[in-house]
Amino acid sequence: MDLLLERLRSIDLLRQAGGLANESGRDFLTEFARSGVKFAASGGTLENAYYSAVYKLPDCVSRGSNGSLTLQEGGVYKGCWLESTGTINAELLSRFVPSVSRATYEQFADHQREDGLIPYKIAEDQPVFRQIQLVSPPARSIWNYYLSNGKDRGFLEKMYAALNRYDEWLEKYRNTRGTGCVEAFCAFDTGHDLSPRFWHVADTPHRGDPTQVDPDSPLAPYLAPDLTASVYCSRKYLALMARELGLDAPWEERAEQSLRALFRHCYDGSDGFFYDRDKHDRFVRLQSDVLLRVLACEVGDSSLFASSLSRYLLNTRKFFAKYPFTSIAMDDPRFDPHSAHNTWAGATNFLSLIRAPHAFEHHDRHVELTWAMQPILSALSRMTRFGQVLSPWTGEEGYTESYSPALLCMLDFVERLCGILPAPDGEVWFTGLLPYPLDHGISLAERTAYARTIDGIAYELLNSTEECTILADGRELARFPYGVRIVTDRAGQLRAIVGMTLRPVRGRLLWNGQEYAFRVEGNERLGFRGNEAGFVPESNPGVVIPAYE
């Protein structure tokens, strides 16, 4: 037997945890182990850092008064925030410990106020309603959980009802200017602590009331593109929920209204960027991670995304630092790279990093996403605390510790780059890449092995630079060249090949004893049409290369 595969199979999460976890932590790790997820690497530093993240994750769970474990933001952040813990963090965690994600989602519905407002934070079982802090679209996270975890109708009905009432609250109280955009009354509405975006605007709403804006503010309320995009995206997914539940509701029309308002009021076609509009109807001309937030909400077509890549996200003058993505464009004089505190004034934030895959993969930009993941994995491999922010210059970790977005970023990026990822749409991705030694030539992993159990089938993936191998219940299922992603359904039926490198990959896929020749370009998807037809082109957006000016 391959020695790396043998070591992968010998990993025992609970035994190796030892005394690291309390009772809640042991319950958490027990469910994690049921996912079958394991990771092993020969050589390099990544494997130890990976398990350091796994064993720190129990520090980010709390048992509520009802006995359920819920996810916490971690570090100095004592509680669960809607913009992160209660949406994108829980969405990533649901691939590993779904019961904790479900309880995390449901508590926001349980604590919803009578007028429809959902708390922006829940701390020690107590809801806090001071601001909205709505960035990641909650409806998408709920829908993806529903698809991936048994399609529990009762769960969907409960969460749909809560999000429907929340949408009504936002329409009533955060559209004071009648534009159809969602308004930010303060900096904390968007979670943009210390960002120059909100210089001379209060951190919190007027008198701590989320329905009130400071009447004497020279600038607020803002028409906020990230908040508007979040509502647009949630309305799209509320439409899917309503259809699934047999309800007649005009969510598609309402989503389209949000999208029109976003482009009418917050988009500047002259530079292809999204900006706030202040109370005087002026653009707040600061290029920030608002762009990535908007794009992660599925705003815009493939042409707009490609343009945003070359002009901004993959531009080394803008957001594509050595350790991307910065929270302020680097060519702005207000850019501050320091990461010793909670800041969105320039440093690379892990919340941005875990939101990014939605934006890239929505437009089939898998290759470009790897260019962001690779340096971040190099930084993660050196981490000991797993802080909130990184230095965009050096990759050194900054403020706080045991921060759940950083810990989940490690798990998510390893799985996307060289692991086995079950997607909400029923696809399973087996990605044949390796972490690359970008920093001083320090090896992260010379070979990798990854395991995951899906619907009772124990899958394993072995990656090397020469060849990759998939096993199902110990039986060899496939062999294929490095540099591609094999796509199956959850039962292990072949669906497609995706090119994962800039260079085209030519080779042969050995699948269940059958051999198929193929050539796939970067980001190209070849669909499998059966033994006779083999692979045929389905899509090919090309690859956008990084820019300098």
pLDDT < 50 stretches:
none
Radius of gyration computed on alpha carbons: 23 Å
Separate helix tally: 15
Walk across the major sheet and give the strand order.
1-15-16-17-18-21-22
Described by strand count, sense and barrel closure, the largest sheet is: 7 strands, antiparallel
What is the CATH architecture assignment of the domain at 68-299? Alpha/alpha barrel
Strand element count: 24
Distance between the termini: 51 Å
Summed over residues and divided by their number, the pLDDT gives a mean of 96
**CATH domain fold name of the domain at 68-299:** Glycosyltransferase
Which CATH class of the domain at 68-299 applies here? Answer: Mainly Alpha
Structural class: alpha+beta
Share in helix: 25-40%
Principal-axes shape call: globular
Strand content: 15-25%
Report on this structure:
This protein has 549 residues and is an alpha+beta fold. Among the domains are: 232 residues, Glycosyltransferase (Alpha/alpha barrel), CATH 1.50.10.10; 92 residues, no CATH class. Helices cover 34% and strands 18% of the residues. Strands 1-15-16-17-18-21-22 form a seven-stranded antiparallel β-sheet. It has a six-stranded antiparallel β-sheet with strand order 13-14-19-20-23-24. The model has no long low-confidence stretch (mean pLDDT 96).
